[in-house]
């Protein structure tokens, strides 16, 4: 039985697991929460939209590359 994910509403724990599996390095729930809190990405039910999370990180990376 397969489980589908709602990428617009992931717990920090699940998002950390997905990112860890994707990047093949450990990413903790705490690290995900730090990013989410920094970008004000946590919803009222403590979930994160993966698209918003990715967009925020992309913006942060772009800002860090500005001369």
Oligomeric state of the chains present here: single chain
Average of per-residue pLDDT values:
93
In whole angstroms, the N-to-C terminal distance is 50 Å
**Unreliable residue runs:** none
Structural class: mainly alpha
Helical residues, percent: 55-70%
Kindly state the number of beta strands. 0
Order of helices and strands: HHH
What is Rg? Answer: 13 Å
Main beta sheet: none
Estimate what percentage of residues fall within beta strands: under 5%
The number of helical runs is: 3
Q: Overall 3D geometry?
A: globular
Q: How does this structure look, described?
A:
By secondary structure, this protein is mainly α. It is 55% helix and 0% strand. The protein is built from 3 helices and no strands. It has helices at 12-23, 29-38, 50-64. α1 (12-23) crosses α2. It is globular. The termini are far apart.
């Amino acid at each position: 039985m397969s489980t589908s994910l709602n990428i617009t509403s992931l717990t920090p724990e699940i998002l950390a697991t997905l990112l860890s599996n994707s990047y093949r390095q450990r990413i903790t729930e705490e690290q995900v929460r730090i990013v989410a809190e920094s970008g004000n990405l946590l919803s009222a039910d403590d979930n994160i939209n993966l698209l918003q999370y990715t967009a925020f990180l992309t913006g942060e990376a772009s800002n860090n590359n500005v001369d």
